[in-house]
Amino acid sequence: MLAIENPSESFISGFVNPVLEQVNDALLTLSESRYVLIVRGYGILQTPFSKKLMCTFSGSGIDSIYARYQAYGQEDQVRLYGGDIVARIESAVLGSRFATHDGVLSDIDPIKFGVNEKEPFLLFERAVSPRV
Hints:
Blueprint: E1 11-16, H1 26-36, E2 37-45, H2 65-72, H3 85-90, E3 94-99, H4 101-105, H5 110-113, E4 121-126
């Protein structure tokens, strides 16, 4: 992890790909993203999710490689996001919206940079003032 002497309001933009489906505390990870962005700074997030799920799916009992592969489709994931993904991001005091690869990174080669061009991006922006 990158250590920054005074990280608060240090970055105008950032890119998270893919992380949230693999960390135990996704809300903390999102909160840290908010912490390092300047006000009105933005980030691009890409994480697997299912349009068919209304809510994010995870379970503490899904803890073996085989069980994770069966539940999430990949052995290193701890959740599969559903239709509540935007609300989860916004709970970390970030505004968000969906975008496509072509709409955000049209000049970037997805194979060279390891980006799944078929998965939508979530654009998020640090709120002007924290919600309580």
